[in-house]
Amino acid sequence: QAAPGSQKIKVVVSRHLGPDVMPLLLDRPELDVVVWPEERACDRRWLLENIVGATAALVMLSEKMDQEMFEAAGPGLRVISTMSVGYEHIDLKLAAERKVKIGYTPDVLTEAVADVSVMLAFMASRNVRETAELVARGDWSKTPWAPFVFCGPQLSASWINTTRTAGFIGLGRISKATLARLIPFGFTHCIYTGNPHSKPNLEADAQTAQKYGLQSVRRVGLDELAAESDVVFVLAPGGPETRHIVNESFLRKMKKTAVLVNTARGTLVDSDALAKALREKWIWGAGLDVIEGEPDVRLDHPLLKESRCVILPHIGSATNETRLGMGTLAVNNVLAGIQGKKLPAELDT
Ligand code: DGY
């Protein structure tokens, strides 16, 4: 509670967080909560003007927290809390220099994003974009059931394919939750690429294999991952180190029947190379929840022309339960940060 006459603590929030979450901030008399008033992504100019003098900023992944923003905020900024698990929009080096804590929202969205990852894998392999669009256009009768019409490769193990390999670019929390979902579909092997700064851990791999009843779990290089996977899940952090990790060379090495799924960040996949790979049938299909340059994806985008490319507008974490969890955690990060406490989900900067 702010003592009468004492200054309130300013918290700037770049998006209204809904009736269940906002009161956690608005009901605190000691806070001066300034919220972006519109139902669209926060205007950068508005944030630059309103972050001035803030102790905390609660932002979305669309807000670039760079030098200009830190300078606009001034020296009183103690915490930036992003309502996302990704944090490549925040200059972490600057945050460390200025002793600004960074809060993010891991764990609460793991299951929701894993659901969408698996959904996109099956949507891409089973031609869902092309076939659902055909029904929506009223054209079903033009292509009725026929023995091999609309067929795609079977991702689950079948009488022909008794082994199935899931490949992960990055084996973090969401990848593991995705892997767990693939087991009942008969997946037998898991391969993954690790963070180049960490060492392989054969014992942990053996434990993961045992836990899921897989024949093997192996850390491999990118080339092997591309060549052996029936489905490649791109689930690494964004940022300059991983930019275009999936490029023409990677895509050319993939199986013709394989699908690529990206539910991480658009920057990891070279869109032009992927469009070429789909057009020239180096791979079967792709399921994307994110694209480089989103949300500015116009009708002339090369990937929109590819009927085997299912594209969703970044809905990986979009369940009511998950967004409630993310919003609540983002607020709790703010509250801990302004009290100088360790954040419930704090990034090591
Ligand atoms: C995140 O939290 O980073 C996700 O991409 C948002 O859904």
From TrEMBL:
Residues 11-345 form the D-isomer specific 2-hydroxyacid dehydrogenase catalytic domain. Pfam families: 2-Hacid_dh, 2-Hacid_dh_C. GO terms for molecular function: glyoxylate reductase (NADPH) activity; hydroxypyruvate reductase [NAD(P)H] activity; NAD binding. It comes from the Eukaryota. PROSITE patterns: D_2_HYDROXYACID_DH_3 (PS00671). Keywords: Oxidoreductase. The keyword Translocase does not apply. GO terms for cellular component: cytosol. Residues 118-316 form the D-isomer specific 2-hydroxyacid dehydrogenase NAD-binding domain. Belongs to the D-isomer specific 2-hydroxyacid dehydrogenase family. This is Glyoxylate reductase.
